[in-house]
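Take the subject:
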Amino acid sequence: MKKPAPQQKNANPDTWEVWLTRLLYYPGDDEEILLSKKVWCSIAVTTFTLSAILLVICLVNGFRPMVLLTALLCTFFLVSMLLFLHLKRYIQAFFLISEVFKVLYSFAAVVVTGGIMQSGGQVFIGMAGIFFALVFPDPVKVWPLLLLYLGTLTLETVLQPYLIPLVQFSPGQNLLFFVLTLAGAILSLFVFMQTFIRERARFRRQETEKLRSLDSARSHFFANISHEFRTPLTVILGMADQIREDPAHHAGDGARLIKRNGRRLLRLVDQLLTLSKLEAGSLPEHFVQADIVLELKYLLESFHSLAESKNIGLHFSSDRPELWMDIDPEKLENIIGNLIDNAIKYTPEGGMVTLRLQQLPPEQEPYPRLLITVEDTGIGIPEQFKEQVFERFFRVGEWPVEGTGVGLAIVREFVHLLDGRIELNSVPGKGTTFSIFLPIHTHAPMQAIAHGTDAAEIQPDKHTPPAFPVSLAARPELLIIEDNPDLVHYLENQLRENYRIRVAHDGEQGIGMAMETVPDIIISDIMMPNKDGFEVCRVLKNDIRTNHIPIILLTARADIASRISGLEAGADAYLAKPFNRQELEVELANLVRLREVLRQKYRQGPPAEKPPGLNERFLLELYQLLEKHYQDEDFGIKAQSTSHVIRSFRLEKAKALLHTTRMTVAEVAYAVGFKDPLYFSRAFSHQFGMAPSDARG
């Protein structure tokens, strides 16, 4: 992409406009505010010039009261212009105050000269301001100004018979002043209309050019992004075929290539999602206080595999061993991750990429700052592209590396969101340095956060979660609620050795199956037809039959807001796709063990008389029911997940009977609802670790 050739100065009609824009611009001004500033300045200059001419005429003719009024008008606009050029802000206030002053000046001039007809057209001065105020950023505030002018006009009419002129114009002088004042008002109005219409036309041209440029940039972007997706997909599909044809030969390298290109696809998807959120303005900050030195050190570690594949060295340095400050983990990882990824991408083989941290003392700000630099020994950025590389969809076409053109745009937006700034220094052929300046605050709560290491980079540990019983009937029951058949197939292959698996293909079916079978644990996607994962959590966690079941949410929504929504809905764990298999297995095993601990706790007997929660109230009602019916051998529930509670209750009653009566073991078995004394003996021994005959007191 080449820049257009610069125009000659004498051929550029916008030189004056560019100079005026630079003179009036204040950070944060948009086009509408700049237009208001230019219009007000042109009106202020015109009004000052005409009032100066009127002042000279009044001095020559000896109209002392009018000399004082016009001198006051000249002074007001001169001071206003100087003050505004110093502040370059509050344009609406300057606009409003100046037009109010002109209305009051017009009223005073009419009173001094003895009435509207004898004022030499001074009444027109206040009227022109109404039209000028129409360019306010907030047009509603024009109405009070209009009412003020109409009020003074009405008051002048009412006072007309009672006014004694302090300045008496002759008929010729009155006509001369009338013509001059009317001409001045028309001239001011002409300047206003010319400035306003010309600026509006220029805005339209700029907007048209921006839209045309944006359409072209988006077309290039989608062409680039389609290529970026096709490249890793080609590698993934190709390696999958090779592994299938010759797994012994291609399994190792193939798995590494598939994983690397899968991560590349994931970064592309994350960039697209981040860009859409930036455009929608839906990216709030989520600060936590953490050791940024440790976080960035872990983040750099996640790029070692990529750097080693290109024989590029990675180096980390910090002027202090640790630095606790407020950070937004997701945005910080996105900023530094994009910069490191670009540095590796544009650095030739054998080069070096360095990540440095340095705490800077405060300068103008009342707080210290952190300087983060990402430096490479790569191909560098040409001078003419240093500003454009931060624009969305922009790519330097001559660079030999593919890209989407959104990474650096996202970096700059995130740096600004964190109240920082980014600088670029690059020498073509020698390397590039990005410098990020962030304020150091320690106001956020201290919180443990996930390190920047990519989960996909973690090598599987030889230590795997302890397997559950080999017997199929003894394994925990896992309900998978997922509408993607490939992911269901993957989960079944990974987990079938340790779990009895049931599958539901949407949220509504999943809720029904959970109510019917009451599984030991649930894995659910979030984005599903009929009912999503959040609704599944809310329904199951608010039902007394299923609120004890642990639920793990698997989703592509990896942002903090979605995690919070999932946890608020009642999820016990939240894993972002693509998830690490070992992490999922550990989460499942831990939640199943926790459920078993709770089961053992509630086996000890009924809860307190005034239980605080749904589970405790349920158990209290259950034990009260068992107290009435435990002797009835036909009383029970077919569902395996609750039958153990009834059996445990009966065994506790049997143990008490063996302690307090002389009944035989068989009689005790029949008394507490067991049909088979042999089965009673085995169940008693399993629960209490002793035979029924050994339990007598």
Residues 172 and 178 are 10 Å apart (CA to CA). Residues 614-695 form a domain with the Arc Repressor Mutant, subunit A fold (CATH 1.10.10.60). The chain has four domains: 15-211, 283-453, 472-602, 614-695.
